[in-house]
Each structure stands twice: as structure tokens, then as C-alpha cells.
Design brief:
The complex is a heterodimer.
Chain A lengths: L7 E3 L8 E3 L5 E3 H4 L3 E6 L4 E6 L1 E8 L2 E6 L9 E6 L11 E9 L2 E8 L10 E7 L3
Antiparallel strand pairs in A: 2-3, 4-5, 4-11, 6-7, 7-10, 8-11, 9-10
Chain B lengths: L2 E3 L2 E2 L18 E6 L4 E6 L1 E8 L2 E6 L10 E7 L17 E5 L2 E5 L1 E2 L2 E2 L4 E7 L4
Classes of the chains: A mainly beta, B mainly beta.
Chain lengths: 134, 128
């Protein structure tokens, strides 16, 4: 067992291109695999609990949120996002589903819709995004 | 402040996976268009296929070690018109590892399977 302690990893040939071994033989780009943005926030009181690369939250109405990123993605199409919308610390809630997309390279739009096709606030919103930053 | 510059990092035996302290990298992700008929961008994905209404399969280049090691989350929407439009209307995307090298996606419009304009997922777990 060996360990390297370092504050910054940079690609020698290309700054953001470091290959890491991730399986028995499989390798992948370190940069491509790392989450670039994530957040756990209260969609009812509209307070952030924990986040990474998030600057501000905006409430667009019931079940409709915009999250602004500190460091933007390079391209609005080259981003993969997913979101969940459970109720916080509750086991018996009406089902609702969640969809999200980038409305710009630095903004993520999230909507939560219940089984009656009505947008509703949820107290435990979670979002994660990967892709290339600018 | 210290900085390490390298193109490839491998465990000290030269072959094993690298452990990243307090980090876990996604092993596959995609944003696909028109029910998986084309790909906007992806990572560790070889192809996608529109298998039925609201259903698509994503083939993975480097497979996971087993179907039970795959953890996926996803989202989908049927329009890129955003910000309060209420037009996402494709939700409830169910996901599972159909095999160690495929991810199975479903998009729903509340109660029925429905094709979707944009699908996105991430998959975490151990590769083979």
C-alpha cells in the first residue's frame, strides 16, 4: 500500500486529462468521471443543505427551481443531469417525479410534478451533474 | 501547496484500480436525444438503441463487474423549453442494469411509457 499526498493533480500533457485505472484492466478519464455540480436543498423553505459548485438558488414557483453554478459547463448540450425529489425524513408521501435540464451552461432547471400533473414543492431536492466545465 | 503532474495514475501494483480519497467517479453517463436515437455527449458509452415507446438501451464500452454493482440515477424531459414552462412532462424514468454492459431506461408521461426528447443518466459502481 502506497499513498501520494498532494494538493493538486494536473495532466502532464493536457491539464484536464488524467487516466486512472478503475477496473481489473479498464481505465478512464478522471475528469470525465467526476461530478461537476451537486446539491441537496430544501425545495419548500428554499434553503441549501449541502452543495458543490452552486452559487444561488431561485424559486420560480411551486415545484420549479433554477440553480446557478459558480463554474459553468462548456456546452449546454454536453451535460448529463439527474435529480430526485423525496420528502425529507418522511416515509409516507405522495409520489412525485422530477426532471431537470440546463437552461444555460451555468443554470440548471428542475421541475417536480405529482401524479395529477401539478408542480409541487418538495423538501428534499437532490441534483447531480457531470460533463465538461468551461 | 503541492502539485502532481501525470498522464496516468494506477495503483502501486501497476494494474489495480486507484483509490481516490473522499472521491468516487461516475463510470458511465450520457445525454441522449429523441428516445436514444442520437447522443449529445457521453462517457463510457458505445451506443444507444430505441427499443420501444419510452424505452431505450444504452450499451457500455467497459462493462461493470456485475449487474448488482450498478447504481443509476436519471432524468428525462420532452422539451428544451424551460423555466416555468411546465412542459417537461416526461418523468419517472426507471433504470436498471439490464446486463453488466447495458443500462435500461424508461420514460413515462405520468402513467404510460412515452418517448422523450432528452434522457440523461449517471451510473456508478465497479467496472470489471
Amino acid at each position: 500500500m502506497s499513498e501520494i499526498k498532494v494538493d493538486t493533480l494536473t495532466g502532464k500533457t493536457t491539464a484536464n486529462d488524467i487516466t486512472v485505472t478503475v477496473g481489473a484492466t479498464a481505465t478512464q478519464s478522471l475528469e470525465q468521471g467526476l461530478a461537476k455540480v451537486w446539491s441537496n436543498f430544501n425545495g419548500t423553505s428554499f434553503a441549501g443543505r449541502s452543495s458543490f459548485n452552486i452559487s444561488t438558488y431561485s424559486d420560480n414557483g411551486s415545484g420549479d427551481y433554477t440553480i446557478s453554478m459558480t463554474n459553468a459547463f462548456s456546452n449546454v448540450d454536453d451535460v448529463a443531469l439527474s435529480a430526485n425529489s423525496p420528502e425529507y425524513n418522511t416515509t409516507n408521501v405522495s409520489p412525485a417525479t422530477c426532471a431537470c435540464n440546463n437552461s444555460s451552461a451555468s443554470n440548471i432547471e428542475i421541475e417536480v410534478i405529482n401524479i395529477s400533473a401539478t408542480k409541487v414543492d418538495r423538501s428534499a431536492m437532490q441534483i447531480i451533474g457531470v460533463g465538461d466545465l468551461a | 501547496m503541492s502539485e502532481l503532474r501525470a498522464d496516468t495514475i494506477t495503483a502501486s501494483d501497476g494494474t489495480s484500480p486507484v483509490t481516490l480519497t473522499k472521491q468516487s467517479a461516475a463510470k458511465s453517463w450520457i445525454t441522449s436525444v429523441d428516445n436514444g436515437t442520437s447522443i449529445n455527449d457521453s462517457f463510457n458509452v458505445s451506443s444507444t438503441a430505441d427499443t420501444a415507446t419510452g424505452r431505450q438501451k444504452v450499451a457500455i464500452t467497459n462493462a461493470f463487474s456485475s449487474t448488482t454493482t450498478i447504481s443509476c440515477t436519471a432524468s428525462s424531459q420532452n422539451t428544451t423549453t424551460l423555466n416555468g414552462s411546465g412542459n417537461f412532462n416526461r418523468h419517472g424514468q426507471a433504470i436498471r442494469g439490464d446486463s453488466a454492459s447495458e443500462i435500461f431506461l424508461q420514460s413515462m408521461s405520468m402513467s404510460a411509457l412515452a418517448d422523450t426528447n432528452i434522457s440523461q443518466y449517471h451510473a456508478h459502481g465497479d467496472l470489471a
